[in-house]
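Note on ligand handling. Small-molecule inputs were canonicalized before submission; formal charges were left as drawn, and no protonation-state enumeration was performed. Where a ligand contained multiple stereocentres, the stereochemistry in the source SMILES was retained. For copper (II) ion, this procedure yielded the string shown in the input block below.
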Amino acid sequence: MIEFAAAPYLLKASYKPRLLSRAVTFVGGTLLLAQLALAESYTVVAVSNGGTIQGVVKLAGTAPTIAPIVVTKNQDYCGESIPNPVYVIGKDGGLQNVEVYLKDITKGKALPTDPVAISLVNSHCMFRPRVQAATVGQQITISSEDPVLHNTHPQNSETNATIYNIALPYKGFSVTKPLPATPELIKVKCDAHEWMRAWIWEFDHPYFATTGDDGRFTIKDVPPGTYTLVAWQEAAGEKSMPVTVAAGKTVTADFQLEPK
Ligand SMILES: [Cu+2]
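Structure output:
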């Protein structure tokens, strides 16, 4: 247990990872927001005969009809409208851009060591990819393929606290930045084009997958045990289920998310 001797009060984050809490301190009228990893962090162990979790995520029923995005700026380049990508349904009804992850896993295989592991591209006045995930300690390369001024503005999805705000003034511009020091769900906006949106899940463990255009996911090398498996989608929200993993075996866990 970490003590906050100087903190007048402590707010506990309830939205996700168990190890996240926030100390909010007023010092001389200045709001300091500190994110602190508590003691129950992830431990790397050898996983020699782990199991695999696989499945497919679909929507229950049919996807709601969502009107195209009406372009309100730079129409000469971006066009008049853009198909709204909130629900991307692929082959056999698979739902793309769902983040599936193990909640409360405390030990397992090592995190990736490649420091530059993810990228976010401003392309045709949208972000690509829309949903992705990374681990603490990784970096992100933010770039533009567009000849219009974008800015990439990642925020904590719960507090809207700005992580950084980067102007991308020309086609070919690229910058690499560290991800935040603690796990969180990051919402990315472009302040110039309010319809642009992306989501980055940042975890302190490597047991997650983002569904592709077939809605499928695979999570490998899971130590035997029973876990809570969560599927998150930006509009449908979260659904979870218990999943028991046996050594060397594959367990199937399919999700149906309720469209909202
Ligand atoms: Cu933009």
